[in-house]
């Protein structure tokens, strides 16, 4: 009798045990995101991210995606964000999918840092796991000396109108302005409120001023062009995929090589004098001089905020030279011990960059284990080339010329942290868990059926 009871209970208990183990394994894998979780596909990842049109109360964010997706921007005065800005074409209430995304944030405070993230498709994108930072410009009391609007049109290589086009204009010492072209490919960019690169004053156009234009279409198809500040406000028609030089009276043969300019565009951030960096001190460098001389690079003629974290924090501002180099020497001696120096400067995309480096100051006469004052890292000093003489007469038709350096820098977003997608081990465990549950249920049903006979 006893053996009969146990022979019925053992299959039942075994079935329940297998079901519990199977459900436990599956639940754990789902909860931890080891299975049934995927990353954002490359089709919705923001590319060609740029900040333009920075004023004392607004800025514009633009980027492209490989697929047509809905895009928006989350922003705020702190990292909690909390506010949303939509694409300029979505403000009527209906959200639409685009490949070129163009978002303008207005009604902001002057000289204020704003943090933001990009929502592209179904995912949120950050910059190295932190929100992007952009600072609005200070107000300017003086009137702008420029009353000029640059107009033009972009067409596809087959002569048809592009679906979406973004146009950008800048110069070596000016900020970047942009416009989202109309449906026929025409753009219009007013330079009336154009500022210098440091955003503290209005830009002034001279006979030597050379502007650079970038036209960005779908699938990252681009065109680059140069034109003099004295040129007519109406530029000739540009064919997407070709580069132009309107500063020359006689243009060379065509070269359809927009991708070359685009490749340079992606690497431009690492160009010396463009991307903010600290050259001296190196990481954990030591000094016997209690007033060491620090140096680095940033945008030419831009303001760099310097903070030395010591017993008494030292805060100051320096302005880079025409090649983007800056130096700083504290006016008061630093106490012996460990310190850090932090620089805050705007990069070529308009994003504020914060860079911190640690160093140590030894007391006078203290032995050090390395050279106290290493030789300074050489900084590349570019030489300016003379601007070509503009053509005295308008050029009705032009041919593309050799590739031109693309003028607008980009920033690279990083998707916010999400669980890693499923791997083979997790899938095997998941299948095992489901299999155990099925086998346990089957044994349980058999034992129940046997006990009823």
CATH topology of the largest domain, which one?
Immunoglobulin-like
Order of helices and strands: HEEEEEEEEEEEEEEEEHEEEEEEEEEH
Q: Looking at this structure, what is the CATH superfamily of the largest domain?
A: Purple acid phosphatase-like, N-terminal
C-alpha Rg, in Å? 30 Å
Largest sheet: 6 strands, antiparallel
The number of strands is 25
Total of domains: 3
Number of continuous helical runs: 3
First-last Cα distance = 16 Å
The first-level CATH class of the largest domain is given as: Mainly Beta
Strand content: 25-35%
Uncertain parts: 33-40, 250-273, 367-407, 414-423
- Could you estimate the helical fraction of the residues in percent? 10-25%
Looking at the overall shape, the CATH architecture of the largest domain is: Sandwich
Output the structural class.
alpha+beta
Describe the structure.
The chain is 15% helix and 31% strand. The chain has 453 residues and is α+β, with helices and mostly antiparallel strands. The strands form 6 sheets. Strands 3, 4, 6, 7, 8 and 25 form a 6-stranded antiparallel sheet that branches. The protein is built from 3 helices and 25 strands. The chain folds into 3 domains: 61 residues; 251 residues, Immunoglobulin-like (Sandwich); 85 residues, Immunoglobulin-like (Sandwich), CATH 2.60.40. Helix 1 runs antiparallel to helix 3.
